[in-house]
Amino acid sequence: MTGVTGDEPDRDAVSALLEDSAEDLYENAPCGYLSTLPDGHIAKVNGTLLRWLGYQREELVGRRRFADLLSVGGKLYHETHFAPLLRMQGEVRGVALEMVAADGRRLPMLVNSTVKTSGDGEPLLIRTTVFDARDRRAYERELLRARQEAERERDEIRRLATTLQRTLLPPVLPTVPGVEIATHYHHASPFEVGGDFYDVFPLADGRWGVFLGDVCGKGAGAAAMTSLTRYTLRSAAVYDPDPAAVLTNLNTVLNQEQDGGQPGFCTVTFGVLAVDPDGCTLTLASGGHPPGLLLRADGTVEYVETPGGQLIGILPDARVVTATVRLSAGDTFVLYSDGLIEARVGDTRYSEQELLEFAATLASTAAADVVGALVDLLAGFGEGVEDDTAVLALGVPAPRRC
Questions:
Q1: How many CB atoms lie within 10 A of CB 240?
Q2: What pLDDT band is residue 162 in, cutting at 50, 70 and 90?
Q3: 100: Cβ–Cβ under 8 A, 6 or more apart, which residues?
C-alpha cells in the first residue's frame, strides 16, 4: 500500500504546468513556427513569427497562404522548386527565402518544412520552422567583404613582389657579338621576392662580366641583400675584373654588412667572358654555387666543377675556386641556381646526375634551345619546384648550313 505525503506535488497541477510550458515554448520559441494546409493556407502560427513579421494572428490564420508572405523571388522559387520538392520528398531543409513583413521590410530566413500525413499517406498539414537569418546574412556579407579585401591585399602583394623582383634582374641583357645569351627566371611564389639573380655587362677592356647567384632567404631582406650583391659585383669588376678578386671583394662587403645581425650570404659564380674570332673563353670563380653545365656541339655533356668553393659572406676569408671554359661553335655553357636540382620529384629531389642525363638527350645545344628545354623541365615538376630558379646560358652559334 502506497502512502501520499504532503511534499508530493499535485499531479493535476504538474500536468497543467507542463501543458502551459509546452504552449509557451511554442509561442515564444527562438524560431518561427507555422502550420499550413495542403493548399498552403496558414492554419497556425506562433507568436515569434508574428512579432518578426508585424502581423496579428487573425490577419494570417485562414486568410493568407505561406507563399503570400514571401518576396517575389521567393514566391517563384517556392512554386518552381520548394513546393515540388516538398511533395516528392516529404521534407525540405535549410532553404534560404526572403519573407516580407507587414511594413514591407524584407527579412532573410532559413526555412525547414515537413509534411504530416494520415495513416493512408494523404497529406494533412505542412509544418514549417523559420529561422531568422539576418545575423547570418550580415555575417556572410562581412565574410564576403573580408574575403574581397583579402583578395585585394593579395593582389597588391603579388604586384609589389613582381615589381620588386623585376628591379633585381636586368630588364634587357646586352648584345654580345659572337655570343648567344638566353635566360629564364622561374618564380616559385608570386607573393614572395626571391634571392636569385643574374647579369651580363660590359667591362672597360672589351670583355664582359657574367654572374649568377642565389642569396639566402626570401622577402624584403633577401631583396636588399640581392641588390647589394649585384651592385658590389658590378663595382668590384670595374676596380679589378679578376673573378677571384671580385668574389673576395663581395665576401668582405657581406661580412661587414652583418654587423652582428642576421647573417647574409649567397652562392655565386662570377665570370669574365672574352670573345675572339674562333669562339670565346670564360674565366670563372665560384663560391659554393652548383657547377656549370657544358654542352658541346658534338653532343657530349659535362659539368665544369669548382669543388671546395665556400659560401660568400659566411667566413672572413672564404675560399674561392676558379676554372676556365673554352667555347667553340655550337657549344653552350649554362649557369643555374639550386632551385632546379632541388626540385621535388615524388619522394626524392631532382639531382645533378639526372640533370646531366637530361642535357645529354637534347637535340640542340643552342643557348635558346637549351634554356627552352629547361623551362619545359621546370614546368613538368609543377609544384615540386619549391624555390626560385634562375638560368643563364652562353653559347657560340653554330655556323649556318647552306
A1: 12
A2: low
A3: 53, 69, 70, 71, 106, 107
For helices 243-258 and 219-239, angle between their N-to-C axes, nearest 10 degrees: 140
Match 619545359 to its residue by C-alpha cell: 376
Place of cell 640581392: 226
Residue predicted with more confidence, 85 or 162: 85
Overall domain count for the chain = 2
Q: How far apart are the C-alpha atoms of 271 and 211, rounded to whole Å?
A: 6
**Are residue 310 and residue 218 in the same domain, yes or no?**
yes
Query: What's the mean pLDDT when you consider all of the chain?
Result: 85
Spell out the SS3 assignment of 8-51: CCCHHHHHHHHHHHHHHHHHCCCCEEEEECCCCEEEEECHHHHH
CB 222 within 8 A of CB 230: no
By the 10 Å C-beta count (0-12 exposed, 13-18 middle, 19+ buried), 60 is classed as: buried
| CA within 13 Å, CB half, 63 | 8
Identify whether residues 193 and 90 lie together within a single domain: no
Question: Residue 194: which domain range?
Answer: 169-395
Per-residue pLDDT tens for 332-359? 999 999 888 888 888 888 889 999 999 9
Give Cα separations from 264 to 27, 211, 223, 320 (angstroms): 71, 18, 11, 17
Question: Is residue 257's pLDDT more than 90?
Answer: no
